[in-house]
Specification:
Layout (H helix, E strand, L loop, with lengths): L3 H4 L3 H33 L4 H50 L2 H6 L2 H25 L2 H16 L1 H48 L1 H6 L3 H54 L4 H42 L22 E8 L10 E8 L4 E6 L5 H6 L9 E6 L2 E2 L5 H7 E4 L8 E2 H5 L8 H10 L3 H6 L7 E2 L8 H13 L5 E5 L7 H14 L4 E5 L3 H4 L4 E6 L2 E6 L1 H7 L1 H16 L1
Parallel strand pairs: 3-10, 3-11, 6-9, 9-10
Antiparallel strand pairs: 1-2, 1-4, 4-5, 7-8, 11-12
Helix pairs in contact: 2-3, 2-6, 2-10, 3-5, 5-7, 5-10, 6-7, 6-10, 7-9, 7-10, 9-10, 14-16, 19-20
Bound molecules: adenosine-5'-triphosphate and magnesium ion.
The site of magnesium ion has 5 residues, from helix 11.
Length: about 575
């Protein structure tokens, strides 16, 4: 990834910030000079005029320094904030492009940390960098030149101090980097824990697992604390070390400088200025070490952001042969499809699957839990890509459609369906942004949702809380079906989408489908045999393979697995 992309649009701020800081540095170097001149010349000669003039210069310098300081901070902040906002946007957009397989790789918590904490870390670093990277060396060089000019002999003390400080800094930074990386990882873990526990807080409560969750959080919190202490320990250690070295240097300078003053070969004003410069040099070294420290932290963050930005999207439509093609009819064909979630594992989840569905047919899929039904239908809108074989829609490989047109044509109600916060109408409009009230009502009627929506005080304007927690499971399922219907998909896939709906309502939905979605292909995954019994075709799956395809009657007379499912579910009822 190219970081320059986030600098270029704001290059003015990136240039002006440090330039302003140079003004401040110049002021910092000039001030002691004016001061020493007052002592050396003004006081010595008892010249009030000279003193007033020099004081005037000092005020002017101070004002310039302030302007420089404010400008530097202003431009630096503008650069950093804009840099971070653009970067955050890009990371977010990249995550949005992730395929299901890409998402499987990261925990939500880790993605959130990268989007928030890591980007902020970089923002702070850019801000600091712009203020310091010219200032610290600038101050160092300026003060060094001034100090050498004042008294080259005395400046020799620095020849000892600076290398020692440099070595100490290097060692500290080398120690710091891995610790900051470790701290970030712990932060990730903590965020993942929070994320998982809070999104599933209802499950936690219903299983009375609060204490366990508290303990889990406590462990993650403790880990982060330990890691932070280890990382901060380096910083804690650094500051007093540097202080000690600074103080020792000051003592040495005072000792040697004092002797020079007594010997009469150094004016007291120069001695004073010299001491200030020494402090400045050491201060600038300190600033640089802070900068390095922060850069090691920023480097850890930048790696984590780069990992996201450079994550190879394992699903793209770049090489699609017919980008403008839309799904027109709704035929589906699987040819020897094989798939596994873990590419290096032996276990195939789908094993040499072949079948054909004609446009407009209703197809049921049935089979024991975990046998691969969801995985099978995920191949149609390309939520995952097949490993071997091919999936065709209207006779065209799904990889040859643009993802947009393919998914526009294929409406899928996911097994783990969720709604978003907003009104019911907002949620339904996910299917079609421009749907009119009538169209919405029509879709809702087909999904048997219109009745209960109207029963809510606010009707279609009823607010749904996050995830749709204020509607019942069956209501949520019906809203999700209506949302998919509004897309007017050529192929509609319902993945166990009526499991929480009572059988009578489910039968009404089936009837509505038959009458109103005549031309669309309907693929219905279900656990209940009554949900699929009337389908044109039923696919019976077992352990990633198809064990039978046919109508209800055909399967009932010829397919053992189907007979078993049928009898286990229906026998009691028939007797009753
Ligand atoms: N995202 C995933 N990553 C890894 N393995 C997965 C993933 N999703 C499903 N699996 C595995 O693939 C197999 C098939 O899962 P699938 O969800 O297709 O079953 P299913 O027939 O839909 O089951 P159910 O009736 O319970 O919904 C299971 O063994 C499951 O553990
Ligand atoms: Mg499933």
């Amino acid at each position: 990834m190219k970081w320059s992309k986030y600098v270029k649009p704001y290059w003015r701020y990136f240039v002006l910030g440090p330039l302003c800081m140079i003004v401040e540095v110049l002021g910092e170097v000039l001030m002691p000079l004016w001061y020493s001149r007052i002592l050396n010349i003004g006081v010595e000669r008892h010249d009030p005029g000279f003193i007033i003039l020099t004081c005037g210069l000092m005020v002017l310098t101070a004002l310039l320094m302030m302007a420089g300081g404010v400008g530097g901070a202003w431009f630096g902040s503008k650069a950093a904030v804009n840099f971070a906002a653009d970067l955050r946007q890009d990371v977010y957009e990249k995550i949005q492009q992730f395929s299901f397989a890409n998402i499987d790789k990261y925990s939500t918590g880790s993605l959130v940390t990268r989007l928030t904490n890591d980007v902020t870390q970089l923002m702070n670093f850019v801000n600091m960098l712009l203020r310091m990277f010219l200032r610290a060396p600038g101050m160092m060089i300026g003060a060094l030149i001034a100090a050498i000019a004042l008294n080259p002999a005395l400046a020799r003390v620095l020849a000892v101090t600076i290398p020692v400080l440099a070595i100490v800094e290097f060692l500290i930074i080398r120690m710091g980097f891995p610790r900051f990386t470790a701290m970030q990882e712990k932060m990730d873990k903590l965020n993942s824990t929070i994320q998982e526990s809070l999104t599933n807080i209802r499950v936690v409560k219903s299983f009375v697992r609060e204490e366990r969750e508290d303990r889990k959080f406590g462990r993650a919190n403790q880990d982060l604390k330990d890691a932070a202490m280890r990382a901060l320990g380096v910083v804690i250690f650094m500051m007093p070390m540097m202080m000690l070295l600074m103080n020792l240097t000051s003592v040495a300078v005072t000792w040697f400088g004092g002797n020079h003053v007594i010997a009469g070969d150094m004016p007291i004003g120069d001695f004073n200025a010299f001491l200030t410069y020494i402090t400045q040099i050491l201060m600038s070294l300190m600033m640089m070490s802070m900068l390095f420290m922060n850069s090691s932290r920023a480097l850890a963050s930048s790696r984590r952001i780069r990992e996201i930005m450079e994550e190879k999207l394992d699903l793209s439509d770049e090489n699609a042969a017919h980008k403008d093609l839309r799904v027109a009819r709704g035929d589906v064909e699987f040819r020897h499809v094989t798939f596994r979630y873990y590419k290096n594992s032996e276990n195939t989840v789908l094993n040499d699957i072949s079948f054909t569905i004609h446009a407009g047919e209703t197809v049921g899929i049935i089979g024991s839990t975990g046998c691969g039904k969801t995985t099978l239908v995920s191949m149609i809108p390309r939520l995952y890509d097949v490993d071997q074989g091919e999936v065709l829609v209207d006779g065209v490989n799904v990889k040859d459609y643009s993802l947009y047109h393919l998914r526009e044509g294929v409406g899928m109600v996911l097994q783990k369906n969720v709604l978003f916060s907003g009104t019911i109408a907002d949620n339904l409009r996910w299917g079609d942004e421009n749907a009119t009230t009538d169209e919405m009502a029509e879709a809702a009627r087909s999904a048997q949702a219109d009745g209960f929506i109207r029963a809510f005080g606010q009707g279609y304007e009823t607010e749904l809380e996050q995830g749709g927690v204020n509607v019942s499971g069956g209501q949520r399922q019906r809203l999700c079906i209506a949302r998919a219907l509004l897309k007017h998909p050529r192929i509609l896939i319902l993945d166990d989408s009526t499991s929480a709906v009572d059988t009578a309502t489910e039968a009404s939905i089936r009837r509505a489908f038959r009458n109103e979605l005549k031309d669309s292909t309907k693929i219905i995954i279900a656990q209940r045999i009554t949900s699929v019994m009337e389908a044109d075709k039923i696919i019976v799956m077992d352990d990633g393979a198809i064990t039978g395809i046919g109508s209800h009657d055909e399967l009932l007379s010829g397919n053992k697995a189907y007979q078993e499912i049928y009898h286990s579910q229906m026998d009691g009822k028939e007797a009753a």
